[in-house]
Design goal:
The protein is of the alpha/beta class. 35% of the residues lie in helices and 17% in strands. α2 packs parallel to α3, α8 packs across α14 and α11 packs across α12.
Length: 413
Amino acid sequence: MVEPIFVTGAGIVSAIGVGKAETLASLKASKTGIGPMKYLSSIHSDLPVGEVKLSNAEMMQMLNVADDSQLSRTVLMGRIALREALDEARLTGDQLRRAAFISATTVGGMDRRELFYAQEKDCDALHAAIATQGCGSSTERIAEPFGSFAMLSTVSTACSSATNAIVTGANMLRCGLTDIVVVGGSECLSMFHLNGFNTLMILDSQQCRPFDRDRAGLNLGEGAAYLVLETKRSVRRRSVKPLCRLSGYGNACDAFHQTASSPDGEGAYLAMQEALHEAGLMPGDIQYINAHGTGTPNNDESESRAIKRVFGDHVPPVSSTKSFTGHTTSASGSIEAIFCILAMQHQFLPQNLNWHTPMDEGIIPVISQQTEHVCEASAKNIDAPAKVIRHILSNAFGFGGNDSSLVLSKCDA
């Protein structure tokens, strides 16, 4: 029998709050964090984004570190989220030194690189500055103030990165390589980031509308989130209280296109099927799906088809929380995993903001937070949620068709 994996700590920072308490309040109040740019300097200032509502200086003050121009927003946000996760799990000292840290990012310290490139005239100084802002360097800098982890690793698979960090950490636990892993991701906004997505013509000039017939694209966001995963043996030894169980996970790559999702959602379908199989669950056991739901015409159509392939005529309540935060790319999988944990702990359905008109043969998402019923429109193609949300499926799909899904389950007494 495979030993269960538990989540014992979680930390988060995003456009809707710093820490789980602020995040929960925003989710329950249906308060989006998407708005005009404040901290990112771009000629595309008309594009709404989901920025963390703190300057670099304010984050440094929160972390009690000296003003350091070398620290990127990816590192600063990562440290804030990691501190909350470690504190909740009571993970310090020798226990921390036996744990692995697996962090996801694709942009890394690109915001600092852009600044150095614009300001630094000395080539040697410029190269030295850039060398410290890679993805692996970002992981090292996030971990630095907390002591020595047993190992550090960085995952970079675009928008499925943080979920794949969770999958990697869980596999390490299953293989007996360690009893504790800290997993998740951090990603800041940058001009490179924004311009790249803008070149693909998939950014919306309004707040994104996932699964809406008139959706026009995504809004980019930033943030960080980390989870502490432990074996049952470790949980008992340390006498910590789990938040939930990671009961299943799956990854598949359909390699359909460099950036587009496959029309039938093959990779997404396979990832969800694998996660359910590993959890030992049937589709009818899932009470809520946190969709990848970017708001792009391609993704939402593809994901709708994949979900219907898995769940048939009995699709559970579905919503995309990217309407709160924007698409936080490499950090989205761990950010949304924590949204799922909060939804399960507090028994509510996060709303799919800005939805008005059904897609042709698409998913009709949750536009009411009530767990007792679903709005009349949603009732057309999804079942009413159960009285108790016990199992949640969370999707994260990346470029190249690298698709991953998690099943998070309520802990038994």
